[in-house]
Amino acid sequence: MQEDLEKVLFREPEIAKRLDELAGQITADYRGKDLTVLAILNGSLIFMADLLRRIPLPIQLDCLRVRSYHGGTVTTGQVEFDRSALPDLKGRHVLLLDDILDSGHTLATIEEAIRVEAKPLSVKKCVLLRKLKERAIPVEADYIGFDVPDEFVVGYGLDYQEQYRNLPLIGVLKGEESGARSEESGG
Ligand code: IMP
Ligand code: MG
After folding, report:
1. Is there a contact between 152 and 176 (Cβ–Cβ < 8 Å)?
2. Which atom of ligand 1 is nearest to the CA of 148?
3. How would you classify the pairing of strands 93-101 and 183-185?
């Protein structure tokens, strides 16, 4: 699999070190609070598993399966998920987890739906990666693993056509132009 990469951005030890730091920050910020982590699937699966095991707090964990639709060179901005699958978040502080902040559509759409429909005490966002680019929706994450260039990255949960999620490192695929995707991607 690794031979399909043009370059490696982050290897396992570097990712592990950064997760230790992020987990420390989150633990300090949410100690004594009722925290529900809402992980956006499939992209945040590996990140979620590795991050949450580093946080020694009695977290409630829920997952939301989301599909984003990409057409041509940019995301279409269509974000679909089952609103009836939203957990009960009354009286809870919510931390949304996603693999990557790209156009901003996914996190903005889900955050808005949660605020309106589930009325939690607070909502924050945590992403493993943040793409350095101008976003279609001006959304910022509260916790960020790494900044990455505006290229298509895979591994550690991130896919290209549902492949490469199990790659233990994060890299850029060979012969792939930045953002030039025509696909439907599961989170
Ligand atoms: P958004 O454009 O911020 O809404 O991101 C939507 C989703 O697109 C993310 O949760 C990822 O699943 C996917 N995505 C965006 N950029 C990449 C990438 O470089 N590699 C793999 N998936 C990506
Ligand atoms: Mg995806």
Report:
1. yes
2. 19
3. unpaired
